[in-house]
Write a structure and sequence with these properties.
Shape: globular
Distance between the termini: 52 Å
Largest sheet: none
Number of strands: 0
Helix content: over 70%
């Protein structure tokens, strides 16, 4: 108990998360007389995981894209394609944010990069201030379910390190996230179209010349997701190979062809991206070492037995899981939440008969709502800083979007076929 209190005090004092987890693992192994070299062995085992290479490579590709004008071109393309719909610019914002987050892996970066373009454009077009703030803030995290989502890759890496009796392939996770992600986008699109009917919105007419011009501007970037996803699903690329192709592709396009990212700036971009990756990987390494201690002491088994005594129904377990994950998303970033909680939640979920791929989608669908759930959702504060608005105003703005996405999460949770249909049919 004394150790728990000490660790809690260290958390309050701001000690890095990896240090807290490592300390708890060291103490745990020491208490059961296991050589502490097991920590180093676990770190080496993680470093030797081939698919782990995809995380730093995709992160670097995303950072390079974030430094270019790709976001502006993406908005022009989506606007030319969808801007003529009722609520067209709102729909453009949803799809552009989702797509950009999927590529960059950072919802905060999406709000900063695209918010500068979309917020004034929507305001000028006649959309209500509250609606604009809520839409951009909430849509910043929508890309977590779409490939090549770094969060999906990380979940797959963690699940593969655990002996749960089922294979969790990352390409299956990519496929599984497509329909739930599109479902969320469709619901928000319907809401945006409905809300726009009561506003005096300037609607642009569809123009083939404008579309062709926008496509021509983005001719180098638009093929990238199709090349990557097609290569992965066709079996031509492994996940790590696709990540390497993504970096090479982005470097050639943004540095050599378009010259929007100066060569001299690349070291800074690499440093910033690897700082993020380093933090994630060191937390992952010590967390999995800590997980080994928990497994050795049968903590997941005992936890499952305890939960099973009080919760008989799979459906009840799922609804409590949703509540827990929403709360978790308010206080932790998605990467920390994955490495800390998946080792505990996954064995319990499998015990209740939940497919681990379905669990991954449930986990991330909840976490992306947690990003903007009051009172401490991270995107609320990023948007408050970006748009110079009180965070309380952001609270009120995001509530309708939060409830719509919560309804979507319930459908995703209780209708597993939505997640697993494409995976099962691909296997056939």
């Amino acid at each position: 108990m004394t150790v728990v209190v000490i660790l809690a005090v260290l958390v309050v004092l701001g000690v890095p998360l990896f240090a807290i987890i490592a300390t708890s693992a060291l103490y745990g192994f020491s208490s059961i007389d296991i050589d502490l070299s097991v920590i180093a062995i676990e770190i080496y085992r993680i470093a030797d995981t081939p698919v782990l290479l995809a995380i730093p490579l995709f992160t670097l590709a995303g950072y390079i894209l974030g430094e270019s004008k790709a976001s502006e071109r993406l908005v022009r393309v989506t606007d030319a394609m969808l801007g003529w719909f009722p609520g067209g610019l709102a729909i453009v914002s949803l799809f552009a944010c989702a797509f950009f987050t999927a590529l960059t892996g950072a919802s905060g970066a999406t709000i900063i990069a695209l918010g500068a373009i979309l917020y004034p454009a929507m305001k000028q077009a006649g959309y209500a201030e509250k609606f604009n703030l809520g839409l951009i803030t909430s849509s910043g995290s929508l890309g977590l379910l779409f490939p090549p989502s770094i969060a999906l890759i990380l979940y797959g890496v963690i699940a593969q390190q655990m002996d749960i009796g089922e294979n969790v392939a990352i390409d299956d996770l990519f496929i599984a996230g497509l329909l739930p992600g599109l479902f969320m986008l469709v619901l928000l699109t319907a809401w945006s179209m409905y809300k726009s009917t009561g506003m005096h919105i300037q609607r642009a007419e569809f123009n083939w010349h404008r579309l062709v011009s926008a496509l021509r501007e983005s001719i180098w970037e638009l093929p990238m997701p199709f090349v990557l996803v097609g290569g992965i699903y066709s079996g031509y690329f492994a996940i790590s190979e696709a990540a390497a192709v993504a970096v090479l592709y982005v470097l050639i396009v943004e540095v050599v062809i378009l010259r929007e990212v100066p060569l001299k700036k690349l070291p800074d971009i690499m440093r910033d991206s690897m700082v993020l990756v380093g933090g994630v990987l060191i937390i992952l390494a010590v967390s999995l070492a800590s997980t080994n201690y928990l497994i050795d002491t049968e903590v997941p088994t005992r936890l499952f037995e305890f939960v099973k005594e009080h919760i008989d129904s799979k459906l009840t377990f799922l609804i409590l899981l949703n509540i827990f994950l929403l709360m978790l998303g308010m206080i932790l970033d998605v990467f920390s939440a994955l490495v800390i909680m998946v080792p505990l939640i996954l064995p319990m979920a499998v015990g209740y008969g939940i497919n681990p791929i379905h669990l991954g989608i449930i986990f991330l669908a909840n976490m992306q709502i947690g990003y903007f759930t009051p009172p401490v959702g991270m995107n609320l504060f990023i948007a408050s800083y970006r748009f110079r608005k009180p965070v309380t105003e952001l609270y009120a703005s995001t509530i309708p979007f939060m409830f719509i996405l919560m309804a979507a999460v319930l459908v995703i949770t209780y209708w597993p076929e939505l997640t697993l249909y494409l995976v099962e049919n691909r296997a056939k």
